[in-house]
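Help wanted!
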Amino acid sequence: MVLVYIDHQDNQIKKSTLEAVSYGAALAKQLGTEVHGLLLGSVNDDLATLGAYELKNVYQMNDAALAHFDAQVFVKTIAAAATKVGATTIVFSHNQTGKALCAGVSALLKAGLVTGAIALPNTSAGFVVKKSVFSGKAFANVSIQTAVKIIAISPNSYKVVGGASAAATTTPLDIAVTAGHVKITAVHKTSGEISLTEADIVVSGGRGLKGPENWGILLDLAKELGAATACSRPVGDAHWRPHHEHVGQTGVQVAPNLYIAIGISGAIQHLAGVNRSKTIVVINKDPEAPFFKAADYGIVGDAFEVLPKLTDAIKKMKASA
Amino acid sequence: MKILVCISKTPDTTAKIAFTDGAKKFDESGVQWIINPYDEWYALVRAIELKEKDPATIIHLITVGGADAEPIIRKALALGGDEAIRINTDSADSFSIAAQIAAVAGTEKYDLIFTGKETIDYNGASIGGMLAALIDAPYIPLATSFNIEGTTATITREIEGGEEVVTVNNPVVVSCQKGVAEQRIPNMRGIMAARTKPLKVVEPAAVEALTSIESFELPATKAGVKLISPDNVEELVRLLHEEAKAI
Ligand SMILES: Cc1cc2nc3c(=O)[nH]c(=O)nc-3n(C[C@H](O)[C@H](O)[C@H](O)COP(=O)(O)OP(=O)(O)OC[C@H]3O[C@@H](n4cnc5c(N)ncnc54)[C@H](O)[C@@H]3O)c2cc1C
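Answered by r_m:
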């Protein structure tokens, strides 16, 4: 059985979870088995609707000790649940929650783990999963040798496939939960922002924008596109933008449908974190900027002139669509 | 307080990524090696900052690797830390590395174990989580700040769309990223001192890897950039809409 971890936040199932469910469903088909979900805690969404992504059933545990996230407690619970329901492959999204959990479950079950997977495994001879390595500069095909296998798929790497007309069932699962040691004392949400790793479109600014006071034109464009915002490392280091927006080899790695780089030179460390983006647009006044070599579309021009015009043109296109 | 910092050796961020042996092995020729930036800039430096506040703190550095890992661990010692441990085996996969470190951590009883959030070569982001599970300690991944008062740590960690502040008592395993510490560079005194700091070599425990790399691939090269005049941004919008179907 393929078991997908149903991650949620603010009582809602995340988009990355739907990707993991879609991946798990395709994998189950490939292996000739069933796909089930594992939910720790509760959500407001109707779990039956997960059937649209071909999930058969959700095992749910609602123990009070699971109301707050504690990796140590969750890891033990997931490992025990996976064993109890007879999971042979466990699928996580490699988002922040997945990063907290999948490695621990792998260690407890001695189940081989591939993190940052970007495709379904090749099962023609063995079980080989493709993942991104060297921060996006290459891929590795990793063979899992153990009977139980764990895959953590990179967010935005597998398309959500919905539309099936089935309803998922829910089965309560009873497993003893140990008490945790971690107390959550505060949660700070960057309100209204679109999550960088899940975003379809990312608009990113570099040192070419000269200073934090100039970010307005970039934010306008992002707003018009419904995009998340990002920046190069020196911009984060100089506190022009918050740390969590820094993308690249030593920052966040993103793989959106569309990445728009504005006033970013395209240093190798920056490219490493963004070159899995499907379409890359570069706006830079220097025609020799290395980023153009990695781009699909480019404008050689001054960002301060191009951005407002671009935002306007998108507005017009939307209005006429 | 006793801190263990996990140190990995990675190719320099500008290293040419190429493969040999029928794409089965990373081509190390001409590659400069560095301390994995997350291990150095955040995990190690935060440990040093804590020792500066409380000089009774003891910092151990640990790495899993052959003798070729020693220049890197010496470089780390030049930044700070009291002694280093090298587990004398080639690293096979994340699990085997974590299990080797767990074997040492299990007897040494550290109060804090710091790792970087991931290595920049294999991007596993797994060692901390595996290690925590193997020694049954709480695990706080993706920390952006770390403070400790007595035996209670207050840690901010990244969650989707924000941050969460947690408190937890020792021992705890923490994976560190940007925000945890201020970057620093080794000075001459540190480099001299590092030469005389103990570097213990321990033989590996019997551990089997769970995974292996079959082959590597390089990404397909782009077809080439389509340039659009800055006076015709409408054309870019049209291409993004009709050709790339991206907006
Ligand atoms: C170990 C290590 C790790 C690193 N990790 C990362 C990482 O994760 N992410 C990252 O981003 N960097 C990283 N770097 C830094 C990286 O090498 C570059 O220094 C950095 O990406 C450059 O940022 P930038 O493109 O914003 O600035 P610059 O390189 O200064 O480029 C600014 C660009 O803006 C253009 N420009 C100027 N004015 C205008 C204008 N008016 N309109 C349009 N364009 C304009 C210029 O032509 C130039 O190309 C790392 C470096 C090291 C050594």
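OP: Thanks! One thing I noticed: Chain B has one domain: 2-219.
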